[in-house]
Amino acid sequence: MADQLIRATAAEGGIRAVGVIATRLTEEARQRHQLSYVATAALGRTMSAGLLLASNMKRAESRVNIRIKGNGPLDGILVDAGLDGTVRGYVDNPSVELPPNSRGKLDVGGAVGNDGYLYVVRDVGYGYPYTSTVELVSGEIGDDISHYLVTSEQTPSALVLGVFVGSEGVQAAGGILIQVLPKAATDETLVQTLESRVTALSGFTPLLQAGKTLPEIFEQLLGDMGLEILPETQLVRFHCGCTFDRMLGALKMLGEAELQDMIEKDDGAEATCHFCGTVYQASSAQLNQLIVDLQSEASAK
Ligand SMILES: [Zn+2]
């Protein structure tokens, strides 16, 4: 099934649900960054969460950045997701591998660590991003994002994220976010019912692997609550907006002395985009041009 995002409502608009299938884009991230099993799970969960969080924003250019910084060996995760369905991301130590946890699952919590912070930056498209920070709960990412939604956004939320990685790569990835909106948030039983239903799912990837579609999963969770599935299926994908020109712009900011040093020592520069792993090469001639540009900008001041 193609990577996709589907939205729904229930309880006469009191409940908002969104589901994402991120299998292919997680596999693309795995290949681009040569991620270990546990790093694939960690990044896939965070990218799925990013797409889910971005899905309720308003302006087309809106984006969400999720930064997770824990005390585990993975060190950190950064994901950038947009309402447009694009997502990119990386982990600081992609080769970390850990034995399975006590439940026989990939030990994402152990890799991320349960001591640290989750930062969520919402850029609504007006140039004034909102940043929220919460402490990590377990490092399992789903718990941590739920904690953020409840404490920072004050929205009762049930979230399930999952990534299943086999020897052939990513077999299933994605998640579901169900939120109780302010008009219904005082309905304690509604909130509890949703939480217990999502908990009873026993994970997201088993449903995908059993061949369930997102509408069928919504039906299972919200079918008796006036479920309305929005007709649009949005395609989602791994995409990085980096270009050779942007890389040159970043090199230019290093300044004249540093550029001169690169020309003399390395006869050019090589830069790798953290987000997508693309390697860019700049020749000495191109670095020299940057120096000329810097000098003419300085003399124009
Ligand atoms: Zn890139």
In whole angstroms, the N-to-C terminal distance is 56 Å
Widest sheet, order of strands: 7-6-3-4-5-11
SSE order? EEHHEEEHEEHEEHHHEEHHEEH
Share of helix, binned: 25-40%
List ligands, each type once.
Answer: zinc ion
Cα gyration radius (Å) = 21 Å
**Overall pLDDT metric:** 94
Strand tally is 13
Helix- and strand-based class? Answer: alpha+beta
Q: What general form does the structure show? A: elongated
- Poorly predicted ranges: none
Name the beta content range: 25-35%
Biggest sheet descriptor: 6 strands, mixed
Family: Belongs to the HSP33 family.
Main location: cytoplasm
Organism: Gloeocapsopsis crepidinum LEGE 06123
Keywords: Chaperone, Cytoplasm, Disulfide bond, Redox-active center, Zinc
Describe the model.
- Its main location: cytoplasm.
- The longest helix is centred in the first third of the chain and has 18 residues.
- The protein is elongated and about 70 Å long.
- The protein is built from ten helices and 13 strands.
- α1 crosses α2 and α9 runs antiparallel to α10.
- β8 and β9 form a beta hairpin.
- It is of the alpha+beta class and 301 residues long.
- The strands form three sheets. It has a six-stranded mixed beta sheet, with helices on one face.
- The structure holds zinc ion.
- Zinc ion binds next to loops.
- The site of zinc ion (ZN) has 6 residues, from loops.
